Amino acid sequence: MRYSDRGGLSMRARVERERLRFVAADMFAGGMSAPQVARELSVTRKSACAWRRTWEVGGKAALASKGPGGNVCRLSADQLDRLVWELERGPAAYGWSDQRWTLPRIVVVIKRLFRVSYTARGVAYLLRGQGWSPQVPVHRAAERDEEQITAWRGWRWSALKGPRRPGAPGSSSATNRARA
Question: What residue spans carry the region label Disordered (predicted)?
């Protein structure tokens, strides 16, 4: 998974990458060039060159991991729990007549409850981190009658469809074979 796919590095992978940078720093201190370090550690030449530049400016300590990237959540753990509870109450609790949470609506709820501004995309990331996923409601007419639909399929659909063709050999090709 790539960084752009919100993959990033796990904590274990981040620690391993930091260890690699520290090994590279020791190799640089021993007089190895960046291309040699890249070959030895099986990393790209670009990474090895960047590590060397960083090492030359700040030493081995400059190659330490800075932690996970991305923005820090602006809501506390208690606020996140409260948000989940409020969302489970449903949109009707906030005056929306249909039972559908949309991202802009959740932005409004967060603003009202916690006085914190989020974008719709930020709310999507926030909710994904809480285990929520986007759902698409099934659109069905309120007047839908399943019994009438079943009856209609029995008598009307079969008449519209017509009789079945007798089992004749056919071809999966869109064209017919030429006749000799």
Answer: 160-180
CA distance 6 to 42: 24
Question: Residue 75 and residue 157: Cα distance in Å, rounded?
Answer: 56
Model confidence at 171, pLDDT cuts 50, 70, 90, reads: low
Q: What per-residue confidence (pLDDT) applies to 44?
A: 94
Residue 100 belongs to what domain range?
77-129
Stated as kind and residue range, the H or E segment containing 180 is none
15 and 54 together in one domain: yes
CA 111, 114, 116, 118 torsion-angle sign: negative
Residue 50 CB coordination number (10 Å): 14
* Residue 164 within any structural domain of the chain: no
Check: pTM over 0.85? Answer yes or no.
no
Determine the 3-state secondary structure of 149 from DSSP: helix
CB 87 within 8 A of CB 80: no
* The residue to which tokens 């926030």 are assigned: 126
